[in-house]
Each structure stands twice: as C-alpha cells, then as structure tokens.
Amino acid sequence: MILINYPPREQWAEILRRPALDTENLFDTVRSIIDRVKAEGDKAVLDYEARFDKVELASLAVTEEEMQEAVEAVGVELKAAIYLAQNNIETFHAAQRFTGKKVETMEGVTCWQKAVGIEKVGLYIPGGTAPLFSTVLMLAVPAKLAGCKEIVLCSPPGKDGKIHPAVLFAARVAGVSKIYKAGGVQAIAAMAYGTESIPKVYKIFGPGNQYVTAAKQLVSLRDVAIDMPAGPSEVEVLADETANPVFVAADLLSQAEHGADSQALLITTSEKLQKEVMYEVERQLGYLPRRDIAAKALENSKLIVVNDREEALQMTNEYAPEHLIIQTTDYHQLAERVTNAGSVFLGPLSPESAGDYASGTNHTLPTNGYAKAYSGVSLDSFIRKITFQEILPQGMCAIGPAIEVMAANEQLDAHKNAVTVRLNSIRKQ
Predict the structure, then answer these.
(1) Are 53 and 191 in contact (CB under 8 A)?
(2) Residue 168 to residues 43, 62, 82: CA-CA distances in angstroms?
(3) Tens digit of pLDDT for each residue in 81-95?
(4) Crossing angle of helices 291-298/271-285, nearest 10°?
(5) N or C: which end of the chain has fewer CB within 10 A?
(6) Which residues have CB under 8 Å from 311's CB, separation 6+?
(7) Mean pLDDT value across the chain
(8) CA-CA distances (angstroms) from residue 294 to 288, 289, 319?
(9) pTM
C-alpha cells in the first residue's frame, strides 16, 4: 500500500484518483456482440457461451430439475444464512414503500403520485471467481417487493453447464421468475433486446466486469434503462487514534479481495495507526486464499495521514466512497457531516461485510465517485412514480388565466387554446 502523510490540498485530486476503467476502447468489440445477439438471438448467445464461458449448452433456460438439484446441494447452514439475510433485506426495503398523498395545490386542483413497479427487470449476476448469490438477494428481494411482474436473471454457467447452486437457491428464495445460463455482453444484450428464450426487460441491474459495464452503457443509450454507472468496487476507512488496527486492516482487505482493480483507502489523523494498519495488512494478507487478487488491489490502495478530523472529513466527501467505515470516538457526529458516500458503517463493530450480506441495506452502490450524484439500489430503483391530476371547474377558473398568459408568452398558442376553450365552456354554464 502507498503511504501518504499530510498532503496539501492541491494534491488531493491526484491522490484520490481511482484505478482507470476505460470502457470506451471496448465499445467496438462489445457493440459487435450486441449486434449479433440482436440479429441471431439464442444462436448467438449459445455460440458466445461456447467461446467465452467454454461450455456447450443445449438450451439457455434453467430447468425445474436443475433448481431442485441446487436446493438439495446447498447446505443447511448456508440456507439458514440466506433466509436470515433475505428477511433483513426485505424488512429494510419494505420500510421504503412510497405512499402518495393527494395534494390540493389550489381549490379545485388536486395532484398526486402513484408508485408502480417496473413490469420487467433483468438481473445480471456474475460468475467467475466468486458466486455472488448475495447480489441475487440484494436485487431480487426489492424487485419482488416493488411488484415487478417479471424478474429475469442471467448468470454464466460453470464448465459443467450449470449455475452455482447457491445462486439458484437464492433466486428461488427471493422470487426470481426466470433464470438463464448466459454471461457477459451476450447476457446484457439478450435482456436488452430479447431472444427466443430470454425476454426483453425494461431495466437491467447488476455488477460485472469491464465488458459487462461497457455493454450496459451501450444498451442504455436508447434501448433500456440500467441501475447506475459502475466502476471497480472501493472502501474508505476514516479513523482516529482509537481505531483497532486489526479491524481496519481486515476491512481494507475485505474490499481488496473483490478484484485486482478494487481500491482501499485509510484516511486517519494518526501516524501510529497508519503504521500499525500497514503491518496488519501485510500479516493478514498472508492468510487469504485470494491473496494474489488482494495484493494487486493493494497496489492502488493508500494509507493517508491528514492534519485533523476536519481535513479527514473534507477529503472523504471529496473522494465520495462507495463504502465508508467510520472508526472514531465521535463517529455519530462525523457521520452527520458525510455528504458523499454510497453506504456508511459506524463504529468498530460495523464492517462493510455486514452490508454486503445480511444487515439489510443494499450492497449495489455507486462507485468511481458517482456517490456525489447517485444513490445505491433501493426499492425506488424498481418503481416508477406516475403523477395524476384532476381539475374541477373552480380550479380551471383559478389557474386557467395564468396558463393562458404563460403559454402566450412562450408563443405556444395551441397550449393556450386548450385552456381557453374550457374556460369559455365553464363561463357559458
């Protein structure tokens, strides 16, 4: 990890720079895959599965027999953990339900909103080095709560032609409608445009590698919505001299093992803690099965000492971390002043892992500084809010003249006339 002590403010932008994720140079390759899936449907997806995932599939859909096999393959302990996480995620997201109130803006003018679930959503669950069954829960549970009628899940199969049992079990628990063996760009394209097997959806959710990210960006330009811009995952620990260096190091490594392009940051007011965390990171790294991945991520990671809490907070808000862990004596007071972060974990016993799995909050969060403008996935991500209004005669008489004046000044005479004919009708009664 890189040690940085008391950097002047003019160096912050460079210090806080993320590992570069340039998806634009992938666009030509990704676009060619998307275009072929649009033109050839299942045939293209099956061909790409053979090429990229190295598996020959007879069909894309997961069968009921495969689902039952997966349910039996998942151990009792993991099943219990998945049920506990599902319950907490459901409890937290159910509390976000929107209740629209009718508002009379003037006498005879009533406006309101109604929340409606997006009818068809697509969930992308990566395969690769770790089966992200937790992401199934994070996406499918709020989708089900929101009232999405069709929840489609795509995930790449292993060499045996099957999706990991834990992913399938979590999908069953969370209420996924249809599951397909498809990964990468071809899965995103299939959900964006539809194939003979995979339905077209209206919004696509889920993480993925740089090719998946590029595919989501391209299909979102005009054809389908996506959850949010994405980049490599990241964590920041904001700590003072009272923080436990063992805990801090463990938190930094838990993020580093996500991928070689992940980033972990410590911002602290204590040089002593900086050195202790450096030692602990090196010690704990040796015990990790994914140490090679974590070590690569640590090359982009930094332990930064600043002058005081105020500077630490300012640097934190400038960085806008996906995950922020605050381990200070006054963590509640500092948390009140956090303005840019995806999800915040308070105190020594609140690791990022809790939010990643089972506390109830969602782990699909804005990365790459997007926390300055985006929220993480929530129940709102799966709904649309439709506005309604009803105008009675007294209401039209109250606001009609103002509408006529505004429309006339914008030189939109047809808009003005739509009000004028109604006012004339009311006056004749």
Answers:
(1) no
(2) 24, 9, 12
(3) 999 999 999 999 999
(4) 150
(5) C
(6) none
(7) 96
(8) 8, 9, 21
(9) 0.94
pLDDT for residue 66 is more than 80 = yes
Tokens of 388: 């309604």
Average pLDDT, stretch 137-157? 98
- Extract the tokens encoding 23: 């998806």
In the structure encoding, which two tokens stand for residue 381, read together?
Answer: 């991500």
- Note whether 263 and 332 are within 8 A (CB): no
Active site residues: 322-323
Which tokens is 63 given?
């069968």
Weakest-pLDDT range from 15-19, 182-186, 349-353: 15-19
CA pair distance 237, 210, nearest whole angstrom: 26
21 confidence band (pLDDT: 50, 70, 90): low
